[in-house]
Structure formats: structure tokens, C-alpha cells
């Protein structure tokens, strides 16, 4: 389950108008300006890791075709939307060179230090990918990684085994970035052939539970083959690990956009009047927006919990109609619901009850991540039970 795309252009326009009135307090103006910038730019997805860890293959897999290939080894590469396929190279001499086509079939000019690939892919209107290689001495790698963390909304850390040196490098990344990052074990097919993948995942799970959203073993070449085939091979796409990663990245993108839109709506309602008309949203999105209305923290919390309850009930009804809970979809929907609740809590005015609710929702999200590692019917049932227990706990702690 993924959050539906929203047309946020009217909302961005209304927010810009609200900011232009000059009636906002200085601290709110700064916050609003940041929100406006986020609404008007794609979600930034950084693909990073040591040289030779399959970053280009992973990015190509997510794009569904060979775009980067092997011709740009060592170069930072940004993939973004444009009306036609073209590559722009920045050189160490300060030149900007442009060529038609894709990077994979283009000769990299001497002295190139960066490449930007434009594609007429509609998906790139809402996101961009930036491949950031980590090379050189540790201090240089650390500087590069910190720059990536500062610009990225989501990070995909590519590694074959995530050894201690990489763990040490990653540990310095801010927690706010780790909350939106994925550990991708690239070249999983090699680990499978060696018989080492289950043991590797088991050894990394305690680290990943603290440092990432999860561990994703991916055979990128197989995933790319499945995507690029004339008739997409769904079974190969799923077994490669690419399908799960792509869906969860899309879910993070949707949640991030919904959170930005929620905060913009809250600001507009408080300082700018009416909002642009919008079509009704499904329960998962409404959960993330429950706190937008100017109401008391207690009323906002009650509304968010009602949305969580109705969303969980709708999900159970859908699972029953499908013949019983299917682990993957149910776990994904549970994660959508609890992250939607977290988004609404973040947008609420502060209070003791709201602070306690935020902590409980964060704990619940971490437990759901553990359920996702199991991917079986028991885990799905545990996840649904967790949602209802969370709702009950928060309702009991909420002031009347």
C-alpha cells in the first residue's frame, strides 16, 4: 500500500500568498519558507556507499532501465526530471558540457567532476536520485556523508556486508536522517550462492534496528532485468528484493510529502485563511492530516486516534474479504497507519499528553519494524494487535 500522489501546487501557491502578507511572526516565516521550498522541489533520495557496492545498478533498477551503467564510476550523479534525455557535466575547469541521451551510452569528458542526468520520467517530478560515492581517506568520506545527510530526505546505504568500518562511518549521521534511511545489501545473489545471506541478515538486524528503517537484501541486476523486460517479470522482481525496497521507498516519499503538506495546511489555517479545494483522501492520508484543524491538543489527539481506529478496521475488513490476512500488505498498511499517526502528532501543539503519545507511537513503529522482518501471518496478526493496543493506551492517557 502506498500513499496516493497529491497535487500540492495549489497548496504551495496558497502558502506563498500567506508568507507574502508579512503578518507572520519571524520564526513562523522561516519555518514557512522552508516548507514552501520542500513543497516545490522533489524528494531528494541519496544512494551512497563505498566504491563497487552496486550504487549505479541499484539506481538503474529503481528507474527500471539502464541510465547510469558503468561509465560514470566515481562521479556524483544526479537523476532529475527534464523534458528530454540529456546529460550535463560540470568539469574541474568550471565548464558545463551538455550531451543528448543517457549517461550509460555517453563518453564522460576529461575533467568531469559531476554529472546531472535529465529524463522525461513523470516519477521524477516527485523525487530525484543522487548517487554519491564515498571514496578517499575516512575524513573525506565522513565529510561527503555529512553533506549527503544535509541534502537528502532519504538515504539508501549500499553495502555488501556493512562491515565495522562502514558502521562507524554511518554512526555519525544525525538520527533525523537515520529515521528515513535504508540499509541495502547489494549483490544479495552472491550471498545466496555462498549460503551466507541468512546469517548476515541475522547479525545485522540489531544494528539495523537502531540505525535504519530496515535491512533490504537486493539482487539489483536481477531486479533491473525484471523491470526492463518487454513483459515485466513480477516473480523475479519480487524475489530480487527490488519490489519491496521500491515500494517502501515510495511509501517514505508519500509520507514525507504528506507531512510537509500537513504542516503547510496548519500554517495556512492559522495565518492565511482558507485552503485550496481538494478531493477527499483515503484513511491513511486522513490519519496524517488529523491535526491540521485549529483545535485543542486533546481534540486533535482524539481525532487522530479515531482515524487510526477506522483505518485499522477498514484494513481488517479488506483482509477478511481477501480470504484472511496477507502478511506483506497487512504489515505495510499497519506501518502506513502508525506513521500517519506519528505525522499528525508531530504537527499538534505541544502538551504532556501529546508528548507521551509521540513517544508511544515511536515505540510502536519500532515494534512494527521488527514484525516486518518476520513477514508471516503471525507477524501480521501481531502488527494489527499492536495498533489496537496503541489506540487503547493513548485513549486512556488522553485528557477528557
In words, what does this structure look like?
The protein is built from 16 helices and 9 strands. It is of the alpha/beta class and 400 residues long. The protein has a 9-stranded mixed sheet, with helices on both faces. Strand 3 and strand 4 (96-100) form a beta hairpin. Helix 1 (9-20) packs antiparallel against helix 2. The chain starts with 8 loop residues before the first helix and ends with a helix.
Runs with pLDDT <50, length 5+?
A: 1-6, 278-297
Give the CA-based shape: globular
Beta content: 5-15%
Structural class: alpha/beta
**N/C terminus separation:** 34 Å
Largest sheet: number of strands, sense, barrel closure: 9 strands, mixed
Query: Strands of the biggest beta sheet: in what spatial order?
Result: 4-3-5-2-6-1-7-8-9
N to C succession of SSEs: HHEHEEEEEHEHHEHHEHHHHHHHH
Q: Care to count the β-strands? A: 9
Average pLDDT figure = 80
